[in-house]
Amino acid sequence: MSDNDFLLCRHMGLTRNDFVKIIKEKNLTTVEAVMDETDAGSVCGSCIYDLNLLMEEILEEQKKK
After folding, report:
1. I want to staple 28 with a disulfide (CB 3.0 to 4.6 A). Which of 9, 24, 33, 42 is the partner?
2. CATH no. for residue 16?
3. pLDDT recorded at residue 34
4. Which stretch of DSSP H or E encloses residue 9?
């Protein structure tokens, strides 16, 4: 795991890079869509804040392209 990769949703066992890959491959544009796709946030919800930040980062990056 790189310094920029970390376990983002411990209940689903998904890392930051897992989410980036899923978001980009599936063209997801909302946190709700990510949650539906991965079940993240469905157990304790502690990852939802980080998912929001990650989604903002990815959408901003896509705007620059």
Report:
1. 33
2. 1.10.10.1100
3. 96
4. strand 7-9
Is the pLDDT assigned to residue 42 strictly greater than 80?
yes
pLDDT band at 60 (very low <50, low <70, confident <90, very high): very high
pLDDT surpasses 80 at 65: no
User: Based on C-alpha coordinates, what's the Rg of the chain?
Assistant: 11
Amino acid type, 40 = A
Q: Which amino acid is at 55?
A: M
Tally of domains within the chain: 1
pTM reported for the whole predicted model: 0.90
Q: 1 lies in a domain?
A: no
